[in-house]
Amino acid sequence: MQLHNLKDDSQKVSFVEAVKTGLGRNQGVFFPELLAPLADVDSLLDMDFVTRSSKILSHLIGDELPADTIALMVQNAFNFPVKLVAVEDNIYCLELFHGPTLAFKDFGGRFMAECLAQFSQGEKTTILTATSGDTGAAVAHAFYNKPNIDVVILYPKGKISLAQQKLFTTLGNNIHCYAVDGSFDDCQAMVKNAFLDSEVKSRLGLNSANSINISRLVAQVCYYFEAIAQLPKEQRAKAHISVPSGNFGNVCAAMIGAVIGLPVAKLSATTNQNDTVPRFMLDKNWAPNTTIESLSNAMDVSKPNNWPRVQTMLDNKWFSYDDFYSTSVDESDTRAVMKKIHQTGYVAEPHTAIAFHGLKANLATDFVGVFLATAHPAKFKESVEEILNIELEMPKPLADALAKPCLAEGIANDYDILREILLAKLG
Ligand SMILES: *Cc1c(COP(=O)(O)O)cnc(C)c1O
Q: MF terms per GO, please (predicted)?
């Protein structure tokens, strides 16, 4: 796979280089120069999830990695199921939360860990990542106790749920966590600063693990094929998929899927009140506001890092602007829609509810809707129990984590302080 930097076309890298460097020059993200169509999508759809995913990833990555190596990496990374559940007539929920940290971030996090373990054998590596809630846990679990790899996670203090936080801050060992006095965007800015700091970058062997890393995006393409494979055959051609969006990595993966042949007619990327993209779609003016806190905190992002990739595909007409919807949902509608879904007998946490809302707002008759459940409701226990007036059972991984002490340290929203700590501790 040949990629180029979307902010500096002269920077071309291989897949391996893109995974190892994360972000390109001028903080540009890497994007494939070419997304070739898959040969026989129908027979791919007949395969099981792991076999099909290996083929899709081999197709995307190309001959940089042998197919049997990719097959092994996929087997290790995707060791939990994807479930498609009928919620209403013509509306299905794609449950992506059956992995070890109960959110879809396990797919990308675990495949990226496989890639880095593969590419950096023996070399000292530090994974530095900002999390708005769920990436941290997925990455921490994927790298926990891996030799020669340290993980540093920054998260906005007090702005993620207790369950989200406990799933990564309780691990210790090679997992180092910092609660930043600021927003997720502030955490992302500190990470970007570290990558621009050549001394820190080389002494620590820095690598990023947030959704800008291309290995996470290609991994996420795979479950969209699984969604279509699980739909009744006669409905496949009319699928409208709705993705709750924050950093726009997940919907970017869906669109990459569409470009290489995934039968998906329409895509919705629905945000909470951090609605930079929905406003951009109306007037083509990029005007991020200050980040607002919401019930769907993993989507509290006002400068989505993956948008340039999505926009590239739209501007290139690889996916039509006419088939791409991006609207926003406010807090009171999020609560209302959680209650509405609950009346059908299904329990959705706030992010999932936003995807459902976006689907209902844009779904035309004749189409079949699939909305993504990006996290297990128990991960948002406080808000789900309060809004739906129910009591949730805690799945075992969560109950275990909740019982352990938080090992994170507080830190000011100041890159120089982070720099000193990192160099002292890991340099
Ligand atoms: C990360 C996350 C999202 C947003 O995904 P993006 O790829 O950042 O758009 C949505 N829901 C949950 C539960 C998440 O953890």
A: pyridoxal phosphate binding; threonine synthase activity
User: Does 174 share its domain with 241?
Assistant: no
Angle, helix 49-61 to helix 67-77, in steps of 10 degrees: 130
Nearest to 226 by CA among 118, 322, 96, 111: 96
What is the rounded distance in angstroms from the CA atom of residue 302 to the CA atom of residue 155? Answer: 16
pLDDT in tens, 30-43: 999 999 999 999 99
Ligand 1 atom at shortest distance from the alpha carbon of 105 = 15
DSSP state, residue 206: E
CB 184 within 8 A of CB 15: no
pTM attached to this predicted model = 0.91
Mutation test residue for ligand 1: of 268, 300, 374, 379, the one with most atoms within 8 Å of CB: 374
User: Which of 95, 134, 291 has the most ligand 1 atoms within 8 A of CB, as the residue to mutate?
Assistant: 134
User: Which CATH number goes with the domain that contains 194?
Assistant: 3.40.50.1100
Same domain for 376 and 259: yes
Q: Is residue 39 part of a domain?
A: no
Predicted local distance difference test score (pLDDT) of residue 210: 64
Residue of the CA atom closest to atom 1 of ligand 1? 298
Any domain includes 240 = yes
Between the CA of 250 and the centroid of ligand 1 the distance, in Å, is 7
Q: Which domain holds residue 168?
A: 105-212+403-426
pLDDT in tens, 192-244: 899 889 999 999 998 877 668 999 999 999 999 999 999 999 898 899 999 99
268 in the same domain as 148: no
